[in-house]
C-alpha cells in the first residue's frame, strides 16, 4: 500500500502521519457449522433369504415359500406390500448346485411394527433367513422440512 488519506493526513503502511487516525481496510472471514438432531420418521427392516440346492427349481420354490411367509408377517404387522422392495438373484455355486437369494427391504413409520416383525422372523425362521437390525431413517421430505 503506497499510502492512504485519513482526515487529510497521508499515512504509510497503516501508520498515520502527524497524529491523525489511520484507515486500515480489514477482512473478517467467518466459518460456521451446525448440527441438528431429530427423531427418524421411517424405519427399515432388511431380510435375506437364500437356499442352495442341486435342483434350481427346488431352490427357487424354497426361497419363494419363505419370502411369502416373510411378506405375510410384514402384512400382519401393518407393513404394506407397496412399501417392500424385493430383488432375487440366481447363481451357480458349483457345477451341481444353484443358489437362489431374495432380499426384501421393508420401510414403515412404525418402529414397533419393524421390531415385532423382526422378532417373529428371528424366532420362527431357520438359518436360511437372515434379518438385519432395524435401521432408523429420515425421508427426503423430513430432511427438507428440517433444513
TrEMBL record:
Record bears the keyword Nucleotidyltransferase: no
Q: Name one GO biological process term.
A: immune response
Predominant location category? cytoplasm
User: Which GO terms fall under molecular function for this chain's record?
Assistant: kinase activity
**Gene Ontology terms, cellular component aspect?**
cytoplasm; nucleus
Which keywords, in A-to-Z order, does the entry hold? Cytoplasm, Kinase, Nucleus, Receptor, Transferase
Localization of this protein: Cytoplasm; Nucleus
Q: Which domain of life is it from?
A: Eukaryota
- Please state what the protein is called: Interleukin-1 receptor-associated kinase 1-binding protein 1 homolog
Q: Which organism is it from?
A: Geodia barretti
